[in-house]
Amino acid sequence: MKQIDVQIMQQSYVLTCPDGQEERVQEAARRVDDAMTRIRDSGKVRSRDRVAVLAALNMAFDVLDRDAQQAHMVNVHAEMQSLAQEQAPPPEVSEAAQAELERQQTLAEQLVLKLDQALESDTRLL
Question: How many domains does the chain fold into?
Answer without folding.
Answer: 1
